[in-house]
Amino acid sequence: MNIDLIYTGLAALGSGLAVVGAGLGIGKIGSSAMDAIARQPESSEKIQNAMIIASALIEGAALFGIVTTLLAVFK
């Protein structure tokens, strides 16, 4: 079996897991933020700012995972 093919498959699996994990995390943050805003509409600006910051951190971690797996393939 070709070792490069194994690396490519593992990298594709790693990239997929990073994207799925980021999607689930951002979906959970969005859902929780909407629930919080529905309960306390007067503090919607603070909740929205916290949601955007958390979403950006999750996206950064997912991008780091994708870049790392691509670097493993094209080393």
Topology:
Elements: H1 3-39, H2 44-73
Helix pairs in contact: 1-2
Describe this structure in words.
The longest helix is centred in the N-terminal third of the chain and has 37 residues, at 3-39. The chain has one domain (3-73): Up-down Bundle (F1FO ATP Synthase). It contains 2 helices and no strands. 3% of the residues are buried. The protein has 75 residues and is mainly α. The mean pLDDT is 89. It starts with a helix and ends with a helix. Helix 1 (3-39) packs antiparallel against helix 2.
Name the helicity range. over 70%
The CATH class is Mainly Alpha
Q: Element order, helices and strands?
A: HH
User: Would you count the extended β strands for me?
Assistant: 0
- Mean of residue pLDDT? 89
Please state the CA-atom Rg, rounded to the nearest Å.
17 Å
Strand content: under 5%
Distance between the termini: 19 Å
How many domains, in number, for the residues?
A: 1
Which of globular, elongated, flat, extended, rod-shaped describes the shape? elongated
Structure classification = mainly alpha
Low-confidence stretches: none
What is the CATH architecture assignment?
Up-down Bundle
Main sheet record: none
CATH topology tier name: F1FO ATP Synthase
CATH homolog superfamily: F1F0 ATP synthase subunit C
Continuous helix count:
2
